[in-house]
Every structure is written in structure tokens, then in C-alpha cells.
User: What shape does this take?
Amino acid sequence: MTAEIEQAEEQREDAFSKWYIDTVLRAELADYTPVRGSMVIRPYGYSIWESIQQFVDRELKATGHQNAYFPLFIPLSFIQKEAEHVEGFAPQLAVVTHGGGEKLTEELVVRPTSETIIYDMLRKWVGSYRDLPVLLNQWANVVRWEIRTRPFLRTLEFLWQEGHTAHATDAEADAEALLIVELYTRLIEEHLAIPVLPGMKTESEKFAGGDHTYTLESLMRDGKALQMGTSHNLGQNFSKAFGVTFLDRTGKEEYPWSTSWAVTTRLIGAIVMVHGDAKGLRLPPRVAPIQVVIVPIWKNDEERSRVEGLVGEVQSALAGAGLRVHTDWRDNVRPGFKFNDWELKGVPVRLEIGPRDAENRSVVAARRDTGAKDTIAADQVTDAIRNLLDNVQRGLLKEAREYLAAHTSTADSWDAVERLLIDPGGFVWVNWCDSKACEEKLAGLKATVRAIPLKVEERPPTGPCVCCGEEAQFRVVVARSY
Assistant: This one.
């Protein structure tokens, strides 16, 4: 890669990064704190997280999972019991050495993930095949000492749900891990309106301490991939490390097979990067804190009194239909300022009601995604707005899919990989040998293997490894990523 190309790439990345951070801050999703790398999630941003929570929590409970809560502090010795686990997380651990003014007899780790503490408890709770499966989930915060941070995408502390399950067979554990992949796919595509590529991680990219990792990858508008969620088949690794055993149906002592899986507040950052534009956010209606904003327009008290009745009627009708609606009665800013403000915050539909609209018993509806406007009769507003919100939801997903298609390529040479990662950027399909040396060479392009296809028919290579020319093991997607 030439110095000129590298400089152009850095400038593009810097511009996108600045736009992203400005949008997060100005739209009041989050704000910085005095602690480096941490953030406050503001009410508007937290409401998006609550919508994600509600969907995931409902789906998990429908499939037999139960919520629990495990401690924030974990003995350091627990982390050290599983060799791969400690090696993978060691650089990110926050360790507590003192408490109550005294040095601790055993150092504690601030939760980076909960496999170890959960498996210490399962040692007490599981003894027979009748105790399986164990299907647990917790909503919690975790701490990972990241070097380079960015709001929502990578912070020292973030929110997530982490599921942990134990099963009598490896087949049951794998079915569980894939069930979660399907659940996350529906969340990301149907609710966040973001197309997703499910796949498997390579051996070097899998979860530390797991047998294999399923991943969900999406493409941001700067051509970089973002890992949206993961689901891990942990095999018997943690069961063996913590001495968790059960008697199977034949009376044989066995170690349970386990899974863990998570999505995080990173998904909010993905919504910004996939759907945002120069004006700010464009929120999918299913997760938007406010789906419809009503902006009354008046010049004097007489005009205000003329619009109040219809505004109240429309507000009540939409709220009664279960829609999240807000009326902006601010009298210290002009309507144009309000329009820009709600566009910045990504509200899917804006309704304008002025004196003439009140007289005609109609409203003007403006879509945030396309900017298109239409006039709707007041007595038809509920059904019309429901349909409009559905159209916005579908439109955002369609637009994101079109971007993904335009930024998905196939490379049959190393030169092509290097070129396509820059123009058009995005996902590049290649034949891959799965060697450490080739992954290291790929890292020189600031890229990684993002996913091995889940569908068996998509895995077979069509030629030699694009990197070294040796026999390829499978086709994979490579990309630059966050």
C-alpha cells in the first residue's frame, strides 16, 4: 500500500470517526466522563438499549432461559484455572488489590465475563443428568481495560446480556449455540434493520477457552466490519477446569458441555454507523425512543389555540394505538430549529400541524429516512402512521442491504485483496488455508478473517489460498474491522 493511499485512508477514517462521535454526543445518546474510556449512557441512548433488552429478554424466556445475577468481583485464581481463558483476557483485566484500606489476601478481578464464577457455582448445583440443561442469562456490566476506546463500540465498561448454559451432550450444546445465533440474527435484522452475516471464527479468533465461536458480522458505512454478537460452544473446558460433573442416564460420571453468548451496547453504535447521515441519526422505528414527534406550528396565541385541539387529538390517537409519540411545544425556538433537532435525533416520522392543517383536519407527515412528505387526513392518521413506520423500517433495511451488496467482493489474488479492501471496501470473499502465517500477513493490511460461512454449501474453496497459494481449507470473509 502506497503512502498516498494510506494517508487518504487515514483521512477518511478520521472524518468518519469525528462524524460518529459528534453524532453520538449531539444526539444525546452518551457523554464522556472524567474516567478515560468510560461513558454515561444518556436517557435517549438507554431507551434504545431497553428496546433491545425487551426483545432479547422476551425471546430468551420463551425458550426456557432464566435470568440470574452473579458477582461483579471474581477471584483472580478462578480466571487462572482455564489456561486459554486467562491468556486471552489477561491484557484487559482490572484487578482489585486493596479493599477497606487493607491489602486483599486474594486479588479480585472486576468481571470481564462470568464463565469462571458461574462454573464454580454449577459445581454445587449439578450432579445428575436430571439437573440439565442449565439455561441462565444475566443482564450486567463488565469491565475490560481497552487501550483505544470509542463510545459504545469499545469502552472500559459496557452493558450486555451474557448467557451461560450447560448440557448433557455436545450436540445439545451446539444446538443451543446456534439457537442463539438465530435469535440474534432476528434482533439485528428485524429490529435494528441491519443485515448480518452469521459465521464461525477461525481458531485464532475464537473465544479464549472455547471449542469454537459463532459470530454475527455486519458492515458499517465506512466499509469496516463490526462484530455484532457472538455465541460460543465451550465444549467441556470450563466443566473440567472447575470440576463440574454429572451422572448420565447409565450412571457414568461425565462433564457437561457448555455455551456462552452475548450482545452488548455496541449495537447502539452500529445503529448510528449503519443508518446515520449528515443530519444525524436515522433510527429504525422498532427501537426508536420516540417513533413520532408532533411539531405544532403557530405565530401567536390565537393560532396556538386553533391547533391545540387537533394536536391533542392526534397525540391521544397515536399513543392509544401503542406508538411512542411526543409533542414539541417549546416556545423559545422556531419550527425550523425543531425540525433539525428531531432529525438529528433520528425520530422516524415528524408530523407538522399548523392553523391551516387544523382547519382542514389534516397533518403533514415527513419521513426521516427519505425526507418525503405527505398530507394525511386526521381521521386516518393512526393507520397511516403505522404503515409509514413499517415502510421506514423496511426502507432502512433495504438501503443497508444495498450498501452491503455494493461493498461485497470476491478476490482471487493477494493484490486483489489489497485493492478491494480499499475500494470499494467492505467484505471480501477469499479462499483461505487457515494458517497463522497467512492471518499475520492479513493483519499487515489492517484486516482479519471475519467469518467462515455457517452454510456448508458456501464453505468449499474454489481455488488455492489467496495469501500463500497453498491448498485452501474453506472460503472466508475478510475485512477491516472495529
About this structure: Residues 292-388 form a domain with the Rossmann fold fold (CATH 3.40.50.800).
